[in-house]
Amino acid sequence: MTIPVRVQPRARADELVAVRDGVLVVRVTAPPLDGRANDAVCRLLAARLDVRPARVAVVRGERSRDKLVRVSGVAQAAVDALLDAPEGERGG
Protein backbone atom coordinates (compact mmCIF):
# COMPACT_ATOMS: atom_id res chain seq x y z
CA MET A 1 0.00 0.00 0.00
CA THR A 2 1.44 3.42 -0.92
CA ILE A 3 0.41 6.86 0.28
CA PRO A 4 1.37 10.14 -1.41
CA VAL A 5 2.63 12.55 1.26
CA ARG A 6 3.61 16.24 1.32
CA VAL A 7 5.94 16.98 4.24
CA GLN A 8 6.38 20.28 6.07
CA PRO A 9 9.55 19.93 8.18
CA ARG A 10 10.49 22.06 11.20
CA ALA A 11 6.88 22.44 12.29
CA ARG A 12 5.72 23.11 15.85
CA ALA A 13 4.31 19.60 16.24
CA ASP A 14 4.19 16.24 14.51
CA GLU A 15 0.72 15.96 12.99
CA LEU A 16 -1.34 14.82 10.06
CA VAL A 17 -2.91 17.99 8.72
CA ALA A 18 -5.26 17.27 5.83
CA VAL A 19 -5.71 15.55 2.54
CA ARG A 20 -5.33 17.96 -0.37
CA ASP A 21 -5.85 16.73 -3.93
CA GLY A 22 -5.36 13.15 -2.77
CA VAL A 23 -2.08 13.90 -0.97
CA LEU A 24 -1.71 13.56 2.80
CA VAL A 25 -0.12 16.69 4.30
CA VAL A 26 2.13 15.90 7.26
CA ARG A 27 3.98 18.29 9.57
CA VAL A 28 7.01 17.12 11.54
CA THR A 29 9.29 18.92 13.97
CA ALA A 30 12.41 17.27 12.56
CA PRO A 31 14.61 19.20 10.14
CA PRO A 32 15.14 17.92 6.59
CA LEU A 33 18.71 16.86 7.38
CA ASP A 34 20.22 13.36 7.26
CA GLY A 35 16.81 11.75 6.73
CA ARG A 36 15.45 12.95 10.08
CA ALA A 37 12.21 14.33 8.60
CA ASN A 38 11.68 11.09 6.66
CA ASP A 39 12.14 9.07 9.85
CA ALA A 40 9.69 11.31 11.69
CA VAL A 41 7.09 10.88 8.94
CA CYS A 42 7.50 7.09 9.04
CA ARG A 43 7.20 6.99 12.85
CA LEU A 44 4.10 9.21 12.81
CA LEU A 45 2.35 7.15 10.14
CA ALA A 46 3.30 3.91 11.89
CA ALA A 47 1.82 5.17 15.15
CA ARG A 48 -1.40 6.32 13.51
CA LEU A 49 -1.78 3.06 11.55
CA ASP A 50 -0.76 0.90 14.53
CA VAL A 51 2.10 -0.86 12.77
CA ARG A 52 5.81 -1.12 13.53
CA PRO A 53 7.91 1.76 12.14
CA ALA A 54 9.95 -0.78 10.15
CA ARG A 55 6.83 -1.44 8.05
CA VAL A 56 6.74 2.18 6.83
CA ALA A 57 9.29 3.43 4.31
CA VAL A 58 9.77 6.30 1.90
CA VAL A 59 10.02 4.73 -1.56
CA ARG A 60 10.24 7.92 -3.62
CA GLY A 61 11.15 11.52 -2.82
CA GLU A 62 13.71 11.02 -0.06
CA ARG A 63 15.08 14.52 -0.67
CA SER A 64 11.80 16.17 -1.64
CA ARG A 65 8.78 17.47 0.24
CA ASP A 66 6.59 15.30 -1.98
CA LYS A 67 7.06 11.64 -1.10
CA LEU A 68 5.56 8.27 -1.78
CA VAL A 69 5.41 6.22 1.41
CA ARG A 70 4.90 2.45 1.42
CA VAL A 71 3.14 0.81 4.36
CA SER A 72 3.10 -2.97 4.65
CA GLY A 73 0.95 -5.08 6.90
CA VAL A 74 -1.97 -2.69 7.14
CA ALA A 75 -5.54 -3.05 5.90
CA GLN A 76 -6.89 -0.76 3.19
CA ALA A 77 -9.67 0.31 5.58
CA ALA A 78 -7.11 1.62 8.09
CA VAL A 79 -5.41 3.75 5.44
CA ASP A 80 -8.76 5.01 4.18
CA ALA A 81 -9.75 6.01 7.73
CA LEU A 82 -6.43 7.81 8.17
CA LEU A 83 -6.90 9.74 4.95
CA ASP A 84 -10.54 10.56 5.76
CA ALA A 85 -9.88 12.10 9.18
CA PRO A 86 -6.38 13.52 9.77
CA GLU A 87 -5.72 15.13 13.16
CA GLY A 88 -5.88 18.71 11.86
CA GLU A 89 -9.36 18.24 10.42
CA ARG A 90 -10.63 16.85 13.74
CA GLY A 91 -9.25 19.77 15.69
CA GLY A 92 -6.52 17.56 17.21
Commentary on this structure:
The protein is of the alpha+beta class and 92 residues long. It has a single domain (2-87), classed as YggU-like (Conserved Hypothetical Protein Mth637, Chain: A, 2-Layer Sandwich). It is built from two helices and five strands; from the N terminus they run E-E-E-H-E-E-H. The chain has a five-stranded mixed β-sheet, covered by helices on one side. It is globular and about 30 Å long.
Task: Name the features.
32% strand, single chain, alpha+beta, five-stranded mixed β-sheet, Conserved Hypothetical Protein Mth637, Chain: A, 92 residues
Brief rundown of the structure:
By secondary structure, the protein is of the alpha+beta class. It has helices at residues 36-49, 76-84; strands at 2-8, 15-20, 23-27, 56-60, 66-71. The protein has a 5-stranded mixed β-sheet with strand order 2-3-1-5-4, covered by helices on one side.
